[in-house]
Amino acid sequence: MKVAVAGCCHGALDKMYETLELLQRRHNVRPDLLLCCGDFQAVRNEADLRCMAVPAKYRHMQTFYRYYSGEKKAPVLTVFIGGNHEASNHLQELPYGGWVAPNIYYLGYAGVVRFRGVRIGGISGIFKSHDYRKGHFECPPYNQQTIRSAYHVRNIEVFKLKQLKRPMDIFMSHDWPRSIYHYGNKKQLLKMKSFFRQEVESNTLGNPAASELLQHLKPTYWFSAHLHVKFAAFMQHETSSKEELPKATKFLALDKCLPHRDFLQIIEVEHDPNAGDSLEYDAEWIAVLKATDSLVNVTQNSWNMPEKNGLHAKWDYSVTDEAIEEVLEELNHNLTIPCNFTLTAACYDPSKPQKNMQPVHTINPQTTEFCAQFGLTDINDRIQQAKEEGSGRGECEQEEEEEGMDSTGSAEEPSEYNTDNSGLSSINPDEIMLDEEGGDEDLSTCSVDPSPDHPPEFSTSFSDIRIMPDSMAVSSDDAMDSNNEDLEKSGGSKQGEEKSSTERRLKRIGGDENGNSGIKKIKRRNQAIYAAEEEDK
To answer: Whole-model pTM?
Structure first.
């Protein structure tokens, strides 16, 4: 089947779907599925805008609300993960995943689903070491800290994914797995994004937890976004035994959804021709959720996951074939995800703007139904209970007691990752620095422009789409950096911005070859990553 993969959407759903329709009209290529690697921006109203961690000038309504209200419907099944520029209050309603609009499915903090027999997993957010071991404690209304920590990856999601044993076809993360740049054309990457050099050379660019998942899951494809540059890599995994067949991952980072950018990729994926066209639960993933439910944490406690270190009675939460069969029996072998989308917030009305609308903590009926069906903890209900209990004795007092405590009540147990930033770049590549605009932004400030009457000044005529060849592997020549380091040899076709005789490439209209924005100052890097449309021209 044909799968379209998009990078950072930034709420430009009309642009994205119009591009797919243009692809079908002009080239008779119709994707069966669309994957989006974060920064989807499922903004329903003005309150949602206040929950996006971006400077005020980037808070625009865009077009998702039209799909939320039912005015429009996504023309192709769309599955996405969260990034670091999201309406966090909206996505928080669906910690285990769910429909944000008809035909648009969010994978949750972490999730695995199936479509036509293809197994698709993902993890939302970006990595920040100082929040990694905390629970999901944030809820609206957010403050200047929690509006950002809400989208930071937590160790419990990584731990759950590491319990999976069955093969993974496709996996998505927003930020790149750390070190993946060593398996592609690093020289070309640094030519396009020279301000990555310090972090690449110190091996601090990217997500170390995602790198660990890459080594464990060994998916056939891994897609990322976040850094707004297209980059391909091919990673050959080491085998643990002579009997194990060698595995390799084809990695692709996508550019953002803007004119002059190569933001869509079409790949052909083997699927089960006998499978239905409905999105389905993954039985092993459901079994893992049930097995790890006791580990759910909704506090700011430091919370190390169980490991074989003498401190935990149990550390292996992987599931047996019998546990998976129990899930199948619970569902009568019908894994179809119900189309139970429900409106949980007022939808933006361009004729009646409500700039003073405030976000509220909402428990989504989809999550309630999912948790009841599988006997899982409703995270938002638990957070609400914790808030009510905390208000009885003072939340500040409670937070002070929790500081420095881990899952065993001990502050001495080491973490699997350092919780300080000493090993990371002094310039955080993963976030827009809100204080770069002269201090923290007022969370009450938002803009609803561009409105339907004043749409962004671009159309599908700027589309740049590629049809992915059978192999995404970079050649051995491409995999040599400026120091002539020996990297993996794939024997496949060259990726990046180079042409290939096996690659069917649609016509590029406008823009330079590399899609550079011309912004190279490290200090302004985060703003460059989240550049506005005019900065790309």
So the answer is: 0.79
